[in-house]
Amino acid sequence: MNKKYGCDVVEDAELKQAFSSNFIDDLKKIGVVEILRLNRRKKGMTSSGVKLGCHYNVMSLVSAFGGRHKHGFLIEQTNDDNEGLLAFHSAWLTPEKKLVCVTPRGISNRLEKDVFFFMFSDDASLEVNFDDIAYVKGHFCPLNRTSNNGRMITYSISHYRQAKKESRNIKQVELNELVNDCLVNRFKKKSILTKKRFNEIIETPYAKQMRKHFQIAPVNKKQVRKLKKKRDVMSFSFSNA
Q1: How far is it, in rounded angstroms, from Cα 117 to Cα 114?
Q2: Whole-model pTM?
Q3: Do the beta carbons of residue 35 and residue 89 sit within 8 Å?
Q4: Which of helix, strand or coil describes residue 44?
Q5: Burial of 166 (0-12, 13-18, 19+ CB in 10 A)
Q6: Which parts of the chain fold into alpha helices (H)?
Q7: Where are the domains of the chain?
C-alpha cells in the first residue's frame, strides 16, 4: 500500500468496504482524491489535546515545536448510505514529516477504528476557514457553523473549495493574543520524551524561539514562504530539543 507522510493512501476497494460506493464516487466529482488513513496519537502529550479543538491544538504544537499545520476533511458516514459528512479538520505534520491526529474524538457509527482524511495540498492559514460539508442524496452542501444547529446552506457545491470562508487579515496584535491564548492548557498529559507538560515545554528556549517566528504576521506571500522556510529549518534542526 502506498504511503504519504507515514499514513496509508487508501485504495478505492477498501474505501467502498467502509463507505457506500455512491459516496466515494461522488467525492471524486467534487475534487476529493488521495484519501489517507490518518494516524492517531494514542499515548503521550500529543494524544491529550482539547477534544474537538483540532485547529488550535495543531497551531499550538506548530508554534512550539515546528512542523506544519495541515488541513482538510475527515470523511464520515453513518449507516445511511445516502448521507455523509466532510468535517473540516486539522492534523499535525511533525518535524519528522509524520502526519498525525492530535485531537481526541469519537468514531463514526460506520467505523470501528480508522479515521479517513482528505488533506489539502496547502498548509492551513489562520485567515481562512472551511465549513463542514453535508452529503445528502448525491449533493454536497456546506453547513453554516455560525448557526446554533449547524444549519445546512440551501445550495449544493461542485468542488470542496467552494465551502471556504475567508476572514479578514489578522493583524500583529491579534496574532500575538490568539497564539498566547491557545497555548494555555491545550494538552493534559506529559511528554514521553521530555517528561514535561506542555505548559513547561513552551517556556523552554527552543519553544520561545520557534514561537517568535510563528507569531510574525506576514504582509505578503513572499514573507509567508520565507517564514515557513525558516520554521522548517528550525523544526528539523531542533526536533529533539
Answers
A1: 10
A2: 0.90
A3: no
A4: coil
A5: exposed
A6: 12-18, 21-29, 54-65, 172-182, 198-201, 205-214, 221-237
A7: 1-241
* Residue 149 scores a pLDDT above 70: no
Q: How confident is the model at residue 241 (pLDDT cuts 50, 70, 90)?
A: very low
Q: What are the cell numbers at 228?
A: 515557513
pLDDT range class, residue 214, cuts 50, 70, 90: confident
Q: In this structure, are residues 88 and 120 in contact, taking their beta carbons and an 8 Å threshold?
A: no
Specify the DSSP element, H or E, that contains 39.
Answer: strand 39-40
**Triad 107, 110, 114: Cα angle to 5°:** 50
Residue 119 C-alpha cell reads as 488533506
Q: In the block, which residue shows the cell 455512491?
A: 22
> Phi and psi for 3 in degrees, rounded to 5?
-125, 150
Place of cell 445511511: 80
Residue with cell 491564548: 181
